Amino acid sequence: MAAYNLHLPLSVPFTYISLCGIGALIMRSAGCTINDMWDQNLDKAVERTQNRPLARGDITTKQAVGFLGVQLMGGLAVLTQMNWYTIFLGASSLSLVTIYPLMKRITYWPQFVLGLTFNWGALLGWSAVAGAVNWPICVPLYAGSVLWTLVYDTVYAHQDKRDDVSAGIRSTALLFGDKTQPILSAFSASSLALISYSGYLNGQGLPFYAGVGLAGFQLARVIRETNWEDRQSCWKGFVRCGWVGIWVWAGATLDYFLLLANEPTKEPDAVEDSKVVEA
Question: Going by C-beta distance under 8 Å and a sequence separation of 6 or more, which residues neighbour residue 187?
């Protein structure tokens, strides 16, 4: 969206999508390591997580810390390829990465903190491309993405709600209970509205909104068809939520390609004339 806003050549988003993609993979895996370190005792009490390496005793906490160090070094290596604004912005997200695993012990809203953490890239990607965050555009995009995370991670949390009660783990799945469907419907509608508003402020075209529309259709299917009392159904719904992001991304990408295709190109004579003027 930043490249669309600034009419930048394809090489720019390609470069930063590659860097941000690698960085996201590394830092999300680091987040999983931190989560498993904090939760190794809780994981033993939940059937689905009992076989995680730390919970099962396959590796020690010391080994996990060493692996985490390697992951953080890799993340730092990617981050240092960005501008200073983005480096500081990226480093500021580490506090969220660290405290997220603790939230399930003290609040029924750990999914909200996860959303704040996972979607930091909505701010980071823009600043990497543009040099600074365009807050009027990025804030609704970030907020809409946080709500999307609340939806899919609540679906995910429904898998473990019975074990979570006995283990003392809190989640939005337990908080919402039999009101899950209407609440997630409201979150979904709000998420798509905020993302659409961000697109409007960015001057996006029809393909972007088509992608948002398909994302809305996918969310509606997930919320309507998921059986909240069936673990396999919840897992399936969680996986299908991933298509929401794919559709929005596809719409934004097509919109950008159409922008490039319609960009006016200088005729050879005009290029020569401009060189003369510059000389």
Answer: 147, 148, 150, 151
The label of the residue with tokens 């950008």 reads 256
**Tens-digit pLDDT profile for residues 18-74:** 888 898 888 878 888 888 887 787 778 777 777 888 888 888 888 888 988 999 899
Q: CA angle 230-232-234, nearest 5°?
A: 70
Model confidence at 278: pLDDT above 50? no
First to last CA, the chain: 35
In three state form, how does the secondary structure of 159-213 look?
HHHHHHHHHCCCCHHHHHHHHHHHHHHHHHHHHHHHHHHHHHHCCCCHHHHHHHH
Residues 148 and 218 sit within 8 Å (Cβ to Cβ): no
User: Are 211 and 205 in contact, with CB atoms under 8 Å apart?
Assistant: no
**At a CB cut-off of 8 Å and minimum separation 6, what does 225 contact?**
233, 237
Residue with tokens 């960015």: 202
